[in-house]
Amino acid sequence: MQSQIQNDRDTVVIIGTGGTIAGAAASAQDALGYTSAQLGVAELAAGLDGGPLQTEQLAQVDSRDMSHALWQQLARRVAEHLARPAVCGVVVTHGTDTMEETAYFLQRVLAPRKPVVLTGAMLPATHHQADGPRNLAHAVALARHPGAQGVLVAFAGHVWSSLEVRKAHSRRLDAFNAGDAGPLALFEPAGVRELRAWPQGAALGLTAISADPPAWPWVEVLASHAGFDARTVAALCAAGVRGLAVAGTGNGSLHHALQAALNDALAVGVAVLLTSRCAAGGVLGDAPFEVAAQLTPWQARVELLLRLLAVK
After folding, report:
1. What is the pTM for the complete model shown?
2. Distance CA 181, CA 294 (A)
3. Closest CA to 117 of 193, 66, 185, 207
4. Strand pairing class (115-119; 150-155)
5. Which of 310, 283, 311 is nearest to 297 (CA)?
């Protein structure tokens, strides 16, 4: 359902997908025993001001259950809204657990010239100190900020790039960071203070994700660890995996059994992309496989997924 809007050129569309920001608990003091995705996006947006708004409820899910099909729907709806002259930007309310994956996916597919801002919350909407309203207000302000572009994450007073963001803490209100890169901008009383350039890049386009979800390639995340058993890779290859995003230890180092098994996987056509299981630092220098630079293992999985879709 879409709310009525003014015919203006600074309309912000808020697309709801669920998450903790829409969560509810029986008690206003309960920060953990809540159910995600209970409140509608129109209710979350009530009271926001500063310009015309439109709300659209695309889904109501806990983001741990985000799917390829929902990514596909979201990318299409975001693109459709961005193409409207009246729309200056789009905000997506989203659960925090997979926000870094969705943000990276949307940036690689759309690389929008207008801002697309993901936001969410660490406390449910019913909590007496709910952080969602402030985050949503900041996200809407960022969607109207002159010159802003690309897919961004607005959270706890910071703006993060979709190409760098990662969830770094399981409970703190400032749950996100960008590894060594730092924020793109800060929210201050006077408005948005820009620190670095907005994310850019070439868009893969919606045609890259036009296949039905069952046809999407199977890509998994695999981590190196002490005592790694090479049968893990062999079993995945035998079952039909198409790509492996590998989280190496430290600066991308790999257990010898895993490295040998990955070479076997490459030989039978399985794509491999190497990153680090460390929270910051990425992989630098020579490596036995292609490196995903500063991406998290889960963003590296998205990158492989999109690459494989592009060559289908």
Report:
1. 0.95
2. 9
3. 185
4. parallel
5. 283
Q: How far is CA 204 from CA 163, 270, 273, in A?
A: 15, 21, 19
Instruction: Give the whole-angstrom CA distance, residue 69 versus residue 72.
Output: 5
Catalytic residue from among 20, 55, 96, 119: 20
Give which of 43, 32, 38, 42 is closest to 61, Cα–Cα.
38
DSSP state of 199: P
Nearest-angstrom CA–CA distance, 133 and 125? 8
Is there a catalytic annotation at residue 20?
Answer: yes
* Spatial separation of the C-alpha atoms in residues 218 and 239, rounded to whole Å: 10
What does the pLDDT profile of the chain (312 residues) look like in tens digits? 344 444 458 999 999 999 999 999 999 999 999 999 999 999 999 989 889 999 999 999 999 999 999 999 999 999 999 999 999 999 999 999 999 999 999 999 999 999 999 999 999 999 999 999 999 999 999 999 999 999 999 999 999 999 999 999 999 999 999 999 999 999 999 999 999 999 999 999 999 998 776 689 999 999 999 999 999 999 999 999 999 999 999 999 999 999 999 999 999 999 999 999 999 999 999 999 999 989 999 999 999 999 999 876
Closest CA to 304 of 253, 265, 256: 265
At how many degrees (to 10) do helices 99-110 and 297-310 cross?
A: 30
How far apart CA 75 and CA 62 sit, in angstroms, is 18
Q: What is the CA radius of gyration of the chain?
A: 20
Nearest CA-CA partner of 172 in 153, 188, 156: 156
The strands making up 243-248's β-sheet, listed across from edge to edge, are 219-223, 243-248, 271-276
Which residue reads 């207000």 in tokens?
137
